[in-house]
Amino acid sequence: MTDNRTTGIPDTPAWRALAAHHREVRGLHLRELLARDPRRFERFSRRVGELLFDFSRHRITEESLERLLALAREADVEGWRARLFAGERVNFTEGRAALHMALRNRSGRPMTVDGEDVMPKVRAVLARMRDFVEAVRGGAWRGHTGRPITDVVHIGIGGSDLGPRMACEALRPYGGGGPRVHFVANVDGADLADTLAGLDPERTLFVVASKTFSTLETLANARSARAWLVGRLGAEEAVGRHFVAVSTHRERVAAFGIDPEHMFAFWDWVGGRYSMWSAIGLPIALQVGWERFEELLEGAHEVDEHFRTAPLADNVPALMALLGVWYVNLFGAATHAVLPYAERLRRLPAYLQQLEMESNGKRIDREGRAVGWRTAPVVWGEPGTNGQHAFFQLLHQGTELVPCDFILAVEGHEPELAHHQRMLVANCIAQAEALMRGRTEDEARRELEAEGLAGEALERLLPHRVFPGNRPSSLIVVPKLTPRALGMIVALYEHKVFVQSVIWRINAFDQWGVELGKRLAGTVLAELEAGAPGEGHDPATRALIGHCLRLAGRG
Ligand code: F6P
Protein backbone atom coordinates (compact mmCIF):
# COMPACT_ATOMS: atom_id res chain seq x y z
CA MET A 1 0.00 0.00 0.00
CA THR A 2 1.41 3.40 -0.93
CA ASP A 3 0.39 6.77 0.40
CA ASN A 4 -0.25 9.59 -1.96
CA ARG A 5 1.02 12.63 -0.09
CA THR A 6 -0.28 15.14 -2.57
CA THR A 7 -3.99 14.40 -2.69
CA GLY A 8 -4.51 14.82 1.03
CA ILE A 9 -5.83 11.32 1.63
CA PRO A 10 -4.10 7.94 1.91
CA ASP A 11 -3.95 6.12 -1.41
CA THR A 12 -6.00 3.05 -0.56
CA PRO A 13 -9.06 1.50 -2.24
CA ALA A 14 -11.51 2.65 0.44
CA TRP A 15 -10.17 6.21 0.48
CA ARG A 16 -10.16 6.39 -3.32
CA ALA A 17 -13.75 5.14 -3.47
CA LEU A 18 -14.75 7.63 -0.79
CA ALA A 19 -13.12 10.52 -2.66
CA ALA A 20 -14.86 9.53 -5.92
CA HIS A 21 -18.17 9.32 -4.09
CA HIS A 22 -17.54 12.67 -2.45
CA ARG A 23 -17.17 14.29 -5.87
CA GLU A 24 -20.63 12.95 -6.76
CA VAL A 25 -22.47 14.07 -3.63
CA ARG A 26 -20.66 17.18 -2.43
CA GLY A 27 -23.07 19.42 -4.38
CA LEU A 28 -26.19 17.92 -2.77
CA HIS A 29 -28.09 20.20 -0.46
CA LEU A 30 -29.36 19.01 2.91
CA ARG A 31 -32.76 20.47 2.08
CA GLU A 32 -33.02 18.09 -0.85
CA LEU A 33 -31.75 15.14 1.16
CA LEU A 34 -34.30 15.74 3.90
CA ALA A 35 -37.11 16.51 1.47
CA ARG A 36 -36.69 13.34 -0.52
CA ASP A 37 -36.54 10.99 2.47
CA PRO A 38 -39.21 11.45 5.16
CA ARG A 39 -37.57 8.66 7.15
CA ARG A 40 -34.16 10.28 7.21
CA PHE A 41 -34.29 10.92 10.96
CA GLU A 42 -34.93 7.20 11.64
CA ARG A 43 -32.24 6.18 9.17
CA PHE A 44 -29.64 8.61 10.46
CA SER A 45 -30.05 8.49 14.22
CA ARG A 46 -28.91 6.00 16.85
CA ARG A 47 -29.48 5.53 20.55
CA VAL A 48 -27.24 4.46 23.39
CA GLY A 49 -29.53 3.91 26.35
CA GLU A 50 -31.22 7.22 27.03
CA LEU A 51 -28.91 9.18 24.73
CA LEU A 52 -29.92 10.08 21.18
CA PHE A 53 -27.37 10.74 18.45
CA ASP A 54 -29.11 12.47 15.55
CA PHE A 55 -26.93 12.77 12.44
CA SER A 56 -29.68 13.35 9.91
CA ARG A 57 -28.38 16.86 9.15
CA HIS A 58 -25.12 15.69 7.60
CA ARG A 59 -24.15 15.91 3.96
CA ILE A 60 -24.26 12.18 3.46
CA THR A 61 -26.36 9.60 1.67
CA GLU A 62 -26.78 5.92 2.54
CA GLU A 63 -23.93 5.27 0.13
CA SER A 64 -21.68 7.83 1.89
CA LEU A 65 -22.26 5.98 5.13
CA GLU A 66 -21.42 2.67 3.46
CA ARG A 67 -18.21 4.09 2.06
CA LEU A 68 -17.20 5.61 5.39
CA LEU A 69 -17.86 2.28 7.09
CA ALA A 70 -15.72 0.59 4.44
CA LEU A 71 -12.95 3.03 5.35
CA ALA A 72 -13.27 2.05 9.00
CA ARG A 73 -13.09 -1.62 8.10
CA GLU A 74 -10.10 -1.06 5.84
CA ALA A 75 -8.33 0.82 8.67
CA ASP A 76 -9.12 -2.16 10.94
CA VAL A 77 -11.00 -0.07 13.49
CA GLU A 78 -12.49 -3.29 14.89
CA GLY A 79 -9.03 -4.83 15.34
CA TRP A 80 -7.68 -1.69 17.03
CA ARG A 81 -10.75 -1.52 19.23
CA ALA A 82 -10.09 -5.10 20.34
CA ARG A 83 -6.43 -4.26 21.02
CA LEU A 84 -7.45 -1.18 23.02
CA PHE A 85 -9.77 -3.19 25.28
CA ALA A 86 -7.24 -6.03 25.55
CA GLY A 87 -4.79 -3.62 27.18
CA GLU A 88 -2.27 -3.83 24.34
CA ARG A 89 0.32 -1.06 24.07
CA VAL A 90 -1.67 1.07 21.65
CA ASN A 91 0.36 4.06 22.84
CA PHE A 92 3.26 2.78 20.79
CA THR A 93 5.68 5.71 21.24
CA GLU A 94 5.57 5.42 25.02
CA GLY A 95 5.03 1.65 25.09
CA ARG A 96 1.86 1.95 27.16
CA ALA A 97 -1.68 0.63 27.17
CA ALA A 98 -4.64 3.06 27.23
CA LEU A 99 -7.05 1.27 29.50
CA HIS A 100 -9.05 4.12 31.03
CA MET A 101 -12.14 1.94 30.49
CA ALA A 102 -10.94 -0.23 33.41
CA LEU A 103 -11.46 2.72 35.75
CA ARG A 104 -15.20 2.59 35.09
CA ASN A 105 -15.55 -1.12 34.40
CA ARG A 106 -18.70 -2.12 36.28
CA SER A 107 -19.03 -5.50 34.59
CA GLY A 108 -17.05 -7.69 36.96
CA ARG A 109 -14.97 -8.85 33.98
CA PRO A 110 -11.18 -8.69 34.36
CA MET A 111 -9.24 -6.15 32.32
CA THR A 112 -5.60 -6.85 31.83
CA VAL A 113 -2.36 -5.04 31.14
CA ASP A 114 0.66 -7.31 30.54
CA GLY A 115 -1.36 -10.29 31.71
CA GLU A 116 -2.23 -8.65 35.06
CA ASP A 117 -5.88 -8.05 35.91
CA VAL A 118 -5.85 -4.38 36.93
CA MET A 119 -9.36 -4.48 38.41
CA PRO A 120 -8.33 -5.38 41.99
CA LYS A 121 -6.13 -2.30 42.25
CA VAL A 122 -8.72 -0.11 40.53
CA ARG A 123 -11.31 -1.27 43.06
CA ALA A 124 -8.90 -0.79 45.98
CA VAL A 125 -8.28 2.87 45.05
CA LEU A 126 -12.01 3.43 44.50
CA ALA A 127 -12.68 2.02 47.99
CA ARG A 128 -10.06 4.36 49.52
CA MET A 129 -11.54 7.29 47.62
CA ARG A 130 -15.02 6.40 48.87
CA ASP A 131 -13.86 6.23 52.50
CA PHE A 132 -12.06 9.54 52.16
CA VAL A 133 -15.00 11.24 50.43
CA GLU A 134 -17.38 10.04 53.10
CA ALA A 135 -15.01 11.15 55.86
CA VAL A 136 -14.65 14.64 54.41
CA ARG A 137 -18.32 15.09 53.57
CA GLY A 138 -19.43 13.55 56.86
CA GLY A 139 -17.09 15.72 58.91
CA ALA A 140 -14.97 12.86 60.28
CA TRP A 141 -11.91 14.18 58.40
CA ARG A 142 -11.03 17.45 60.07
CA GLY A 143 -8.42 20.09 59.58
CA HIS A 144 -5.40 20.65 61.84
CA THR A 145 -7.40 22.74 64.30
CA GLY A 146 -10.32 20.31 64.40
CA ARG A 147 -12.60 22.18 62.02
CA PRO A 148 -14.56 20.29 59.33
CA ILE A 149 -13.65 20.90 55.69
CA THR A 150 -15.89 23.35 53.83
CA ASP A 151 -13.67 24.12 50.80
CA VAL A 152 -11.53 21.95 48.57
CA VAL A 153 -8.89 23.48 46.30
CA HIS A 154 -7.87 21.16 43.49
CA ILE A 155 -4.45 22.04 42.09
CA GLY A 156 -3.57 20.50 38.73
CA ILE A 157 -3.33 21.41 35.05
CA GLY A 158 -4.25 19.92 31.65
CA GLY A 159 -5.65 16.45 32.09
CA SER A 160 -5.28 16.79 35.85
CA ASP A 161 -7.62 19.79 35.83
CA LEU A 162 -9.91 20.01 32.82
CA GLY A 163 -12.00 16.88 33.43
CA PRO A 164 -12.83 17.41 37.12
CA ARG A 165 -13.27 21.14 36.59
CA MET A 166 -15.71 20.54 33.72
CA ALA A 167 -17.58 17.82 35.62
CA CYS A 168 -17.88 19.80 38.87
CA GLU A 169 -19.36 22.67 36.92
CA ALA A 170 -21.73 20.37 35.04
CA LEU A 171 -22.93 18.60 38.19
CA ARG A 172 -23.31 21.60 40.46
CA PRO A 173 -27.00 20.81 41.19
CA TYR A 174 -25.85 17.55 42.80
CA GLY A 175 -23.47 19.33 45.17
CA GLY A 176 -25.73 19.60 48.21
CA GLY A 177 -24.04 18.42 51.40
CA GLY A 178 -20.54 18.54 49.95
CA PRO A 179 -17.72 21.05 50.23
CA ARG A 180 -17.32 23.88 47.73
CA VAL A 181 -14.72 22.85 45.16
CA HIS A 182 -12.28 25.35 43.60
CA PHE A 183 -9.69 24.84 40.89
CA VAL A 184 -6.25 26.35 40.42
CA ALA A 185 -4.31 25.53 37.26
CA ASN A 186 -2.51 28.56 35.89
CA VAL A 187 0.98 29.40 37.11
CA ASP A 188 -0.17 33.03 36.92
CA GLY A 189 -0.26 33.92 40.63
CA ALA A 190 -3.62 35.60 40.02
CA ASP A 191 -5.24 32.18 39.83
CA LEU A 192 -4.05 31.03 43.25
CA ALA A 193 -4.42 34.44 44.88
CA ASP A 194 -8.00 34.92 43.67
CA THR A 195 -8.92 31.41 44.80
CA LEU A 196 -7.39 31.69 48.25
CA ALA A 197 -8.90 35.11 48.90
CA GLY A 198 -11.75 34.56 51.28
CA LEU A 199 -10.91 30.93 52.11
CA ASP A 200 -10.45 29.87 55.71
CA PRO A 201 -7.21 27.85 56.02
CA GLU A 202 -8.63 25.90 58.95
CA ARG A 203 -11.42 24.54 56.75
CA THR A 204 -9.61 24.20 53.43
CA LEU A 205 -8.31 20.95 51.93
CA PHE A 206 -5.87 20.97 49.00
CA VAL A 207 -5.80 18.14 46.47
CA VAL A 208 -2.56 18.24 44.48
CA ALA A 209 -3.20 16.30 41.27
CA SER A 210 -0.41 15.48 38.88
CA LYS A 211 0.19 12.24 37.04
CA THR A 212 3.94 12.84 36.92
CA PHE A 213 4.16 15.07 39.99
CA SER A 214 6.77 17.05 38.11
CA THR A 215 4.65 19.64 36.31
CA LEU A 216 6.04 23.12 36.90
CA GLU A 217 2.73 24.93 37.27
CA THR A 218 1.21 22.41 39.65
CA LEU A 219 4.26 22.18 41.88
CA ALA A 220 4.65 25.98 42.01
CA ASN A 221 0.97 26.39 42.97
CA ALA A 222 1.15 23.55 45.50
CA ARG A 223 4.27 25.03 47.16
CA SER A 224 2.69 28.47 47.41
CA ALA A 225 -0.54 26.99 48.75
CA ARG A 226 1.43 25.09 51.36
CA ALA A 227 3.29 28.27 52.36
CA TRP A 228 -0.09 30.06 52.68
CA LEU A 229 -1.49 27.31 54.87
CA VAL A 230 1.56 26.92 57.09
CA GLY A 231 1.88 30.71 57.38
CA ARG A 232 -1.75 31.11 58.42
CA LEU A 233 -1.94 28.15 60.75
CA GLY A 234 1.58 28.60 62.08
CA ALA A 235 2.39 24.91 62.03
CA GLU A 236 4.25 22.77 59.50
CA GLU A 237 2.36 19.66 60.76
CA ALA A 238 -0.90 21.21 59.48
CA VAL A 239 0.10 20.02 55.99
CA GLY A 240 -0.80 16.45 56.96
CA ARG A 241 -4.49 17.28 57.49
CA HIS A 242 -4.81 19.78 54.65
CA PHE A 243 -2.94 18.24 51.71
CA VAL A 244 -3.66 15.05 49.79
CA ALA A 245 -2.16 14.02 46.45
CA VAL A 246 -3.30 12.19 43.34
CA SER A 247 -0.46 10.80 41.27
CA THR A 248 1.28 7.82 39.72
CA HIS A 249 4.53 8.87 41.42
CA ARG A 250 4.74 7.95 45.10
CA GLU A 251 8.36 9.03 45.67
CA ARG A 252 7.83 12.52 44.28
CA VAL A 253 4.70 12.93 46.39
CA ALA A 254 6.68 11.97 49.49
CA ALA A 255 9.55 14.27 48.49
CA PHE A 256 7.06 17.13 48.23
CA GLY A 257 6.08 16.48 51.84
CA ILE A 258 2.70 14.78 51.43
CA ASP A 259 2.36 11.55 53.35
CA PRO A 260 2.01 8.74 50.75
CA GLU A 261 -0.75 7.40 53.02
CA HIS A 262 -2.69 10.43 51.81
CA MET A 263 -1.98 9.76 48.17
CA PHE A 264 -4.50 8.25 45.76
CA ALA A 265 -2.78 6.32 43.01
CA PHE A 266 -3.39 5.78 39.35
CA TRP A 267 -1.24 4.14 36.71
CA ASP A 268 0.75 4.83 33.57
CA TRP A 269 -1.92 3.14 31.42
CA VAL A 270 -4.23 6.07 32.24
CA GLY A 271 -3.48 9.01 29.96
CA GLY A 272 -3.77 12.45 31.60
CA ARG A 273 -6.63 13.56 29.35
CA TYR A 274 -8.45 10.26 29.95
CA SER A 275 -8.05 10.38 33.72
CA MET A 276 -11.16 12.01 35.18
CA TRP A 277 -12.49 8.52 36.01
CA SER A 278 -9.46 7.79 38.17
CA ALA A 279 -8.53 9.40 41.49
CA ILE A 280 -8.09 12.58 39.41
CA GLY A 281 -11.88 12.70 39.73
CA LEU A 282 -11.63 12.99 43.52
CA PRO A 283 -12.98 16.56 43.62
CA ILE A 284 -16.02 15.44 41.62
CA ALA A 285 -16.75 12.78 44.23
CA LEU A 286 -16.10 15.25 47.06
CA GLN A 287 -18.58 17.64 45.52
CA VAL A 288 -21.40 15.30 44.51
CA GLY A 289 -20.88 12.37 46.86
CA TRP A 290 -19.87 8.80 46.18
CA GLU A 291 -23.11 7.46 44.70
CA ARG A 292 -23.29 10.21 42.13
CA PHE A 293 -19.64 9.68 41.22
CA GLU A 294 -20.40 6.02 40.62
CA GLU A 295 -23.30 7.03 38.36
CA LEU A 296 -20.81 9.04 36.29
CA LEU A 297 -18.64 5.93 35.97
CA GLU A 298 -21.68 3.85 35.06
CA GLY A 299 -22.64 6.21 32.25
CA ALA A 300 -19.15 5.97 30.78
CA HIS A 301 -19.20 2.19 31.18
CA GLU A 302 -22.48 1.96 29.28
CA VAL A 303 -20.82 3.73 26.37
CA ASP A 304 -17.73 1.49 26.66
CA GLU A 305 -19.95 -1.57 26.31
CA HIS A 306 -21.72 0.02 23.35
CA PHE A 307 -18.44 0.96 21.66
CA ARG A 308 -16.92 -2.47 22.32
CA THR A 309 -19.84 -4.51 21.01
CA ALA A 310 -22.00 -2.52 18.59
CA PRO A 311 -21.44 -3.09 14.87
CA LEU A 312 -19.74 -0.10 13.28
CA ALA A 313 -22.92 0.95 11.47
CA ASP A 314 -24.68 1.40 14.82
CA ASN A 315 -21.67 2.45 16.83
CA VAL A 316 -22.10 6.08 17.87
CA PRO A 317 -18.44 6.92 18.62
CA ALA A 318 -17.43 5.30 15.32
CA LEU A 319 -20.09 7.29 13.45
CA MET A 320 -19.02 10.52 15.14
CA ALA A 321 -15.43 9.77 14.12
CA LEU A 322 -16.32 8.96 10.52
CA LEU A 323 -18.41 12.10 10.12
CA GLY A 324 -15.46 14.10 11.42
CA VAL A 325 -13.15 12.44 8.90
CA TRP A 326 -15.65 13.14 6.11
CA TYR A 327 -15.52 16.88 6.75
CA VAL A 328 -11.83 17.17 7.65
CA ASN A 329 -10.40 15.07 4.83
CA LEU A 330 -12.98 15.40 2.05
CA PHE A 331 -14.47 18.85 2.58
CA GLY A 332 -11.29 20.35 4.08
CA ALA A 333 -12.98 21.60 7.26
CA ALA A 334 -10.32 23.03 9.55
CA THR A 335 -12.42 23.46 12.67
CA HIS A 336 -15.20 21.75 14.58
CA ALA A 337 -17.61 23.55 16.90
CA VAL A 338 -19.00 22.07 20.10
CA LEU A 339 -22.12 23.90 21.20
CA PRO A 340 -23.61 22.73 24.48
CA TYR A 341 -27.13 23.97 25.04
CA ALA A 342 -26.59 23.63 28.78
CA GLU A 343 -24.88 26.47 30.60
CA ARG A 344 -23.28 24.08 33.07
CA LEU A 345 -21.44 22.39 30.19
CA ARG A 346 -19.58 25.63 29.56
CA ARG A 347 -16.23 23.96 30.27
CA LEU A 348 -16.95 21.05 27.89
CA PRO A 349 -15.44 22.75 24.81
CA ALA A 350 -12.19 23.43 26.74
CA TYR A 351 -12.16 19.85 27.97
CA LEU A 352 -12.69 18.53 24.43
CA GLN A 353 -9.97 20.80 23.09
CA GLN A 354 -7.42 18.89 25.11
CA LEU A 355 -9.04 15.53 24.45
CA GLU A 356 -9.16 15.98 20.68
CA MET A 357 -6.27 18.31 19.95
CA GLU A 358 -3.69 16.86 22.32
CA SER A 359 -4.70 13.36 21.23
CA ASN A 360 -4.91 13.78 17.47
CA GLY A 361 -2.96 16.97 16.80
CA LYS A 362 -0.23 14.82 15.22
CA ARG A 363 1.61 14.78 11.91
CA ILE A 364 3.59 11.55 12.05
CA ASP A 365 1.97 8.21 11.27
CA ARG A 366 2.49 4.79 12.81
CA GLU A 367 5.34 4.10 10.42
CA GLY A 368 7.15 7.27 11.51
CA ARG A 369 6.42 9.17 8.29
CA ALA A 370 4.83 12.59 7.88
CA VAL A 371 1.15 12.14 7.12
CA GLY A 372 -0.07 13.56 3.84
CA TRP A 373 -3.55 14.28 5.11
CA ARG A 374 -5.22 16.48 7.66
CA THR A 375 -5.64 15.17 11.18
CA ALA A 376 -7.44 16.78 14.14
CA PRO A 377 -9.37 19.97 13.42
CA VAL A 378 -9.33 22.93 15.79
CA VAL A 379 -12.08 22.26 18.33
CA TRP A 380 -13.85 25.24 19.80
CA GLY A 381 -17.20 26.35 21.13
CA GLU A 382 -19.33 28.07 23.72
CA PRO A 383 -22.68 27.31 25.22
CA GLY A 384 -25.82 28.27 23.38
CA THR A 385 -27.62 30.56 23.41
CA ASN A 386 -24.67 32.90 24.15
CA GLY A 387 -22.74 31.75 21.10
CA GLN A 388 -25.68 32.68 18.86
CA HIS A 389 -25.04 36.32 19.69
CA ALA A 390 -21.32 36.09 19.07
CA PHE A 391 -19.97 33.77 16.39
CA PHE A 392 -22.99 32.03 14.86
CA GLN A 393 -22.96 34.67 12.13
CA LEU A 394 -19.87 32.98 10.71
CA LEU A 395 -21.46 29.54 11.03
CA HIS A 396 -24.44 30.68 9.00
CA GLN A 397 -22.95 33.01 6.40
CA GLY A 398 -19.16 32.83 6.67
CA THR A 399 -16.87 31.27 4.09
CA GLU A 400 -15.71 28.42 6.36
CA LEU A 401 -17.57 25.13 6.61
CA VAL A 402 -17.77 24.38 10.35
CA PRO A 403 -19.42 21.10 11.33
CA CYS A 404 -21.17 21.51 14.67
CA ASP A 405 -22.09 19.28 17.58
CA PHE A 406 -25.14 20.51 19.46
CA ILE A 407 -25.38 18.96 22.91
CA LEU A 408 -28.78 19.27 24.49
CA ALA A 409 -30.17 18.32 27.90
CA VAL A 410 -33.93 18.57 27.50
CA GLU A 411 -34.98 18.91 31.13
CA GLY A 412 -33.37 21.51 33.35
CA HIS A 413 -32.66 21.44 37.06
CA GLU A 414 -34.79 24.51 37.75
CA PRO A 415 -38.47 23.51 37.58
CA GLU A 416 -39.46 27.05 38.52
CA LEU A 417 -37.71 28.23 35.33
CA ALA A 418 -39.12 25.58 32.98
CA HIS A 419 -40.09 28.28 30.48
CA HIS A 420 -36.38 29.24 30.19
CA GLN A 421 -35.58 25.64 29.43
CA ARG A 422 -38.18 25.54 26.66
CA MET A 423 -36.58 28.62 25.11
CA LEU A 424 -33.17 26.96 25.32
CA VAL A 425 -34.40 23.76 23.68
CA ALA A 426 -36.24 25.73 20.99
CA ASN A 427 -33.12 27.71 20.15
CA CYS A 428 -30.98 24.62 19.87
CA ILE A 429 -33.36 22.86 17.51
CA ALA A 430 -33.90 26.04 15.52
CA GLN A 431 -30.18 26.65 15.03
CA ALA A 432 -29.60 23.14 13.73
CA GLU A 433 -32.54 23.61 11.35
CA ALA A 434 -31.42 27.05 10.20
CA LEU A 435 -27.86 25.87 9.54
CA MET A 436 -29.23 22.99 7.52
CA ARG A 437 -31.80 24.80 5.44
CA GLY A 438 -30.58 28.38 5.12
CA ARG A 439 -32.71 30.94 3.34
CA THR A 440 -33.02 30.87 -0.46
CA GLU A 441 -33.10 33.94 -2.67
CA ASP A 442 -36.84 33.45 -3.26
CA GLU A 443 -37.55 33.23 0.44
CA ALA A 444 -35.40 36.25 1.17
CA ARG A 445 -37.15 38.21 -1.60
CA ARG A 446 -40.59 37.38 -0.21
CA GLU A 447 -39.50 38.43 3.28
CA LEU A 448 -38.14 41.74 2.04
CA GLU A 449 -41.33 42.38 0.08
CA ALA A 450 -43.33 41.65 3.23
CA GLU A 451 -41.18 44.25 4.98
CA GLY A 452 -42.30 46.74 2.33
CA LEU A 453 -39.11 46.88 0.25
CA ALA A 454 -39.13 46.96 -3.55
CA GLY A 455 -37.02 47.87 -6.54
CA GLU A 456 -33.38 48.83 -6.17
CA ALA A 457 -33.50 48.96 -2.37
CA LEU A 458 -34.69 45.36 -2.27
CA GLU A 459 -32.15 44.16 -4.85
CA ARG A 460 -29.30 45.83 -2.91
CA LEU A 461 -30.20 44.06 0.30
CA LEU A 462 -31.19 40.74 -1.20
CA PRO A 463 -27.79 38.97 -1.40
CA HIS A 464 -27.05 39.86 2.24
CA ARG A 465 -30.28 38.25 3.36
CA VAL A 466 -29.59 34.90 1.64
CA PHE A 467 -28.19 32.05 3.77
CA PRO A 468 -26.60 29.20 1.84
CA GLY A 469 -27.58 26.58 4.45
CA ASN A 470 -26.19 23.06 3.93
CA ARG A 471 -24.17 23.48 7.12
CA PRO A 472 -23.91 20.11 8.85
CA SER A 473 -24.53 19.36 12.50
CA SER A 474 -25.05 16.48 14.92
CA LEU A 475 -27.34 16.54 17.91
CA ILE A 476 -26.48 14.68 21.08
CA VAL A 477 -29.62 14.72 23.20
CA VAL A 478 -29.96 13.51 26.80
CA PRO A 479 -33.09 13.79 28.95
CA LYS A 480 -31.26 15.69 31.70
CA LEU A 481 -27.68 16.58 32.61
CA THR A 482 -27.24 13.86 35.24
CA PRO A 483 -23.92 12.30 36.29
CA ARG A 484 -24.78 9.29 34.17
CA ALA A 485 -25.53 11.41 31.09
CA LEU A 486 -22.28 13.33 31.54
CA GLY A 487 -20.32 10.09 31.77
CA MET A 488 -21.92 8.93 28.53
CA ILE A 489 -21.20 12.14 26.65
CA VAL A 490 -17.53 12.24 27.64
CA ALA A 491 -16.93 8.56 26.88
CA LEU A 492 -18.48 9.00 23.41
CA TYR A 493 -15.90 11.66 22.61
CA GLU A 494 -13.04 9.59 24.04
CA HIS A 495 -13.83 6.70 21.72
CA LYS A 496 -14.51 9.00 18.79
CA VAL A 497 -10.99 10.36 19.16
CA PHE A 498 -9.55 6.85 19.26
CA VAL A 499 -11.37 5.77 16.08
CA GLN A 500 -10.13 8.88 14.28
CA SER A 501 -6.57 8.18 15.35
CA VAL A 502 -6.85 4.70 13.85
CA ILE A 503 -8.17 6.09 10.56
CA TRP A 504 -5.48 8.78 10.45
CA ARG A 505 -2.88 6.17 11.50
CA ILE A 506 -1.52 8.23 14.37
CA ASN A 507 -0.99 7.70 18.09
CA ALA A 508 -3.78 9.35 20.12
CA PHE A 509 -2.09 8.77 23.45
CA ASP A 510 1.23 10.63 23.45
CA GLN A 511 1.88 14.40 23.51
CA TRP A 512 5.49 15.06 22.56
CA GLY A 513 4.50 18.36 21.01
CA VAL A 514 4.13 20.06 24.38
CA GLU A 515 7.65 19.16 25.52
CA LEU A 516 9.71 21.67 23.55
CA GLY A 517 7.94 24.73 24.92
CA LYS A 518 8.23 23.34 28.47
CA ARG A 519 12.00 22.87 28.09
CA LEU A 520 12.53 26.34 26.62
CA ALA A 521 10.44 27.87 29.43
CA GLY A 522 12.92 26.38 31.90
CA THR A 523 15.82 28.06 30.09
CA VAL A 524 14.07 31.43 29.87
CA LEU A 525 13.02 31.27 33.53
CA ALA A 526 16.63 30.74 34.62
CA GLU A 527 17.63 33.80 32.57
CA LEU A 528 14.81 35.95 33.97
CA GLU A 529 15.94 34.97 37.44
CA ALA A 530 19.58 35.69 36.58
CA GLY A 531 18.58 39.06 35.08
CA ALA A 532 20.17 38.54 31.63
CA PRO A 533 19.23 36.73 28.40
CA GLY A 534 21.44 33.75 27.55
CA GLU A 535 23.46 33.27 24.35
CA GLY A 536 21.42 30.38 22.99
CA HIS A 537 18.50 32.41 21.61
CA ASP A 538 17.69 33.99 18.28
CA PRO A 539 17.98 37.82 18.27
CA ALA A 540 14.21 38.40 18.56
CA THR A 541 13.89 36.16 21.61
CA ARG A 542 16.93 37.82 23.23
CA ALA A 543 15.44 41.25 22.62
CA LEU A 544 12.10 40.17 24.06
CA ILE A 545 13.71 38.78 27.21
CA GLY A 546 15.66 42.04 27.57
CA HIS A 547 12.46 44.06 27.14
CA CYS A 548 10.63 42.08 29.84
CA LEU A 549 13.60 42.37 32.20
CA ARG A 550 13.65 46.15 31.76
CA LEU A 551 9.87 46.36 32.35
CA ALA A 552 10.34 44.34 35.52
CA GLY A 553 13.10 46.79 36.56
CA ARG A 554 15.75 44.11 36.37
CA GLY A 555 17.49 44.73 33.07
O1 F6P B 1 1.64 19.54 29.12
C1 F6P B 1 0.83 18.50 28.76
C2 F6P B 1 0.58 17.55 29.87
O2 F6P B 1 1.58 16.59 29.91
C3 F6P B 1 -0.79 16.92 29.69
O3 F6P B 1 -0.78 15.87 28.82
C4 F6P B 1 -1.15 16.58 31.07
O4 F6P B 1 -2.52 16.34 31.17
C5 F6P B 1 -0.68 17.80 31.81
O5 F6P B 1 0.52 18.15 31.15
C6 F6P B 1 -0.47 17.64 33.28
O6 F6P B 1 0.45 16.64 33.59
P1 F6P B 1 0.55 16.06 35.06
O7 F6P B 1 -0.72 15.42 35.41
O8 F6P B 1 1.69 15.08 35.01
O9 F6P B 1 0.86 17.20 36.00
Largest sheet: 6 strands, mixed
Our estimate of the beta-strand percent is 5-15%
Helix/strand class: alpha/beta
- How large is the count of helical segments? 22
Distance between the termini: 58 Å
Q: List cofactors, ions and other ligands.
A: 6-O-phosphono-beta-D-fructofuranose
Radius of gyration: 26 Å
State the shape: globular
- Mean model confidence by pLDDT: 96
Q: Helix share of residues?
A: 40-55%
Query: Would you report the number of β strands?
Result: 13
User: What strand order characterises the main sheet?
Assistant: 1-2-13-12-10-11
Regions with little confidence, pLDDT below 50 for 5+ residues: 1-6
Give keywords.
47% helix; 555 residues; 6-stranded mixed beta sheet; binds 6-O-phosphono-beta-D-fructofuranose; single chain; 5-stranded parallel beta sheet; alpha/beta
In words, what does this structure look like?
- The chain has about 550 residues and is α/β, with parallel strands linked by helices.
- It is about 45% helix and about 10% strand.
- The chain has 22 helices and 13 strands.
- The strands form 3 sheets. It has a 6-stranded mixed sheet, with helices on both faces. The protein has a 5-stranded parallel sheet with strand order 6-5-7-8-9, with helices on both faces. Strands 3-4 form a two-stranded antiparallel ribbon.
- Strand 5, helix 7 and strand 6 form a beta-alpha-beta unit.
- Helix 1 runs antiparallel to helix 4, helix 7 (about 160-170) packs parallel to helix 12 (about 280-290) and helix 13 (about 290-310) packs parallel to helix 20.
- The termini are far apart.
- Residues about 1-5 have low confidence and may be disordered.
- It binds 6-O-phosphono-beta-D-fructofuranose.
